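Input chain follows. Return structure tokens only.
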Amino acid sequence: LASKDIDALSPEQNEIAMEKATKAMTAFTNKYLRNTGTSLCADKSVPAVVIRGLAEHKLTLGAPLCPCRFYEDKEAEAKDGYWNCPCVPMRERHECHCMLFLTEDNAFAGTD
């Protein structure tokens, strides 16, 4: 759905679209955790908020743009791809600004 399409949805349709996008981003997160050997933050409210933000951006921008940064132009950033999850710093150095994907040596990494 494009941003203009989201605006045309009823509140109920928007809620369904958001639920579907959140499930998709949760599945992506779980797969990426397995593939990279990383962990979620021990404080489960952190990944919950980040995943929701990624889902919102996936719906409104068409890409899971990192929700933890400020952008002058979100649409341009989403098209550029640098900050789309997993962002370049995460892919290259396992550095997740959002604390969604944490390495085992991170004090905030969960154990489950």
